[in-house]
């Protein structure tokens, strides 16, 4: 990767990010660990995720412009985010990236960038089975 361009630009900008979000959320909804945490009307969640990831990956500050500072950990506190759920979320993202044709070094860079925040949102210990 050319270190002078953002991850947002490397992945293809707005069009690719929209494809990622549209591929990702059906996987989240179908996941037994994640689906129950999301509302039936997933469209507003998808739009906020698109806006957040745009700025998170180095694109325009869509999320902050609309909603203020992301404060993502605080926004996730009402939900029981376990280590297992963080891993499931990342797994759904990996599947979405593969589905739309993002592989190799770019896929790895995206997953690495998302791994820290995904685990930072953990607020509930692993559930006992």
Please explain how this structure is put together.
This protein has one domain: Globin-like (Orthogonal Bundle). It is mainly alpha-helical. It is built from seven helices and no strands. The model has no long low-confidence stretch (mean pLDDT 92). Helix content is 64%, strand content 0%.
Q: Which helices and strands appear, and what pairs or packs with what?
A:
Blueprint: H1 7-11, H2 13-30, H3 43-56, H4 62-67, H5 72-76, H6 83-99, H7 104-120
Helix pairs in contact: 2-3, 2-6, 6-7
Beta-strand content bin:
under 5%
For the CA atoms, what is the radius of gyration?
14 Å
Which stretches are low in confidence, meaning pLDDT under 50 for 5 or more residues running?
none
Structural class: mainly alpha
CATH architecture: Orthogonal Bundle
What's the N-to-C terminus distance? Answer: 43 Å
Oligomer: single chain
Would you list the SSEs in sequence order as H and E? HHHHHHH
Q: How many beta-strand elements?
A: 0
Number of helices: 7
Shape: globular
- Structural domain tally: 1
Give a quick summary of the entry.
By secondary structure, this protein is an all-alpha fold.
Could you list some keywords that capture this structure?
Globin-like, mainly alpha, globular, 64% helix, 129 residues
């Amino acid at each position: 990767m050319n270190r002078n361009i953002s991850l947002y630009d490397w992945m293809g900008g707005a069009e690719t990010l929209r494809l990622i979000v549209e591929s990702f959320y059906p996987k989240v909804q179908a996941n037994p660990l994640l689906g129950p945490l999301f509302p039936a009307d997933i469209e507003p969640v998808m739009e906020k995720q698109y806006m957040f990831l745009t700025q998170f990956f180095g694109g325009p500050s869509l999320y902050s412009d609309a909603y203020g500072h992301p404060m993502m950990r605080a926004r996730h506190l009402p939900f029981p985010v376990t280590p297992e759920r963080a891993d499931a979320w990342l797994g759904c993202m990996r599947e979405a990236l593969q589905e739309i044709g993002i592989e190799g070094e770019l896929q790895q860079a995206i997953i690495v960038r998302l791994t820290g925040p995904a685990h930072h949102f953990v607020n509930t210990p692993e559930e006992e089975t």
